[in-house]
Write a structure and sequence with these properties.
Layout lengths: L1 H41 L2 H16 L4 H39 L1 H8 L3 H12 L1 H10 L4 H11 L3 H8 L3 H20 L7 H46 L1
Helix pairs in contact: 1-9, 1-10, 2-3, 3-7, 3-8, 3-9, 4-7, 5-6, 5-10, 6-8, 6-10, 9-10
Length: 241
């Protein structure tokens, strides 16, 4: 547990710095945020579709998925943000799977030759297909490289998409953090209308979300390494027979 708590410290420092920045530039940031949100709202349904398109293209080019998660919470709120992000994640995963399976299979396999850990993951996923895919989706690894890896490994598409639903656990926290940040900018720390209870809920929820992501990621990471070790041991045993 101590190791997990130590791993939270750098992220906590970043959050504190962001909070400090909000104190100094909150009003100006809120004005820009309102203008951008108004532009997205003016596009109607096309604004949401444009966001999904940007997500698919951006994450396929390895832009961090969390950036879009935070933005969705800011732009669309909790309910719509989560729905849009889940749809965007599943669509991007399906497209990345198809690219890896049909077009990028050979380049990906060549790229993996210099990355023994990822190569081991790819071998292990064949023997522990659905279980290991679910665990991989819970790790801090970016979803797009995992989708490319699994697509090139030739896992079943149905199991691949089922495991991709686990991405919702990260989506919930990311969208909430974006939404909470928007509330922080909009209402500040000493807003009499909302009171200290609202502030405690926002900041406490943010802290719990960060803690949940870190702890679940750590547990999943260990489970993935254990599954890889078991797969390598089974392969060695079969080779000695």
């Amino acid at each position: 547990m101590r190791r997990e708590l130590r791993s939270i410290v750098p992220l906590a420092v970043v959050v504190m710095l962001l909070i400090a920045a909000v104190v100094f530039i909150g009003h100006e940031a809120w004005l820009h945020l309102q203008a951008f949100q108004g532009w997205i709202a003016g596009l109607g349904p096309w604004g949401r579709l444009a966001f999904v398109g940007l997500f698919v293209v951006g994450t396929s080019l390895l832009v961090p998925e969390s950036v879009f998660g935070f933005a969705a919470g800011v732009l669309f709120g909790l309910a719509w943000g989560m729905a849009i992000m889940l749809f965007a994640n599943l669509l991007a995963a399906a497209i990345q799977y198809g690219l890896a399976r049909r077009i990028l299979h050979t380049p990906i396999q060549r790229w993996l030759e210099s990355r023994p850990l990822l190569r081991s993951i790819q071998r292990a996923v064949i023997g522990h297909e659905l279980r290991l895919q679910v665990l991989l989706r819970l790790t801090p690894l970016s979803p797009a490289p995992i989708s490319y890896l699994l697509g090139a490994a030739g896992v079943r598409f149905s199991g691949f998409m089922l495991a991709s639903l686990v991405l919702m656990s990260h989506v919930i926290v990311e969208v909430y953090l974006g939404h909470a940040g928007k509330q922080l900018v909009a209402h500040g720390f000493n807003n009499a209308e909302h009171g200290w209870q609202h502030a405690l809920l926002v900041y406490g929820g943010t802290a719990m979300g960060i803690l949940a992501i870190v702890l679940v990621s750590k547990i999943a990471h260990r489970a993935v390494l254990k599954a890889i070790a078991e797969s390598e041991a089974e392969k060695a045993d079969s080779g000695n027979i």
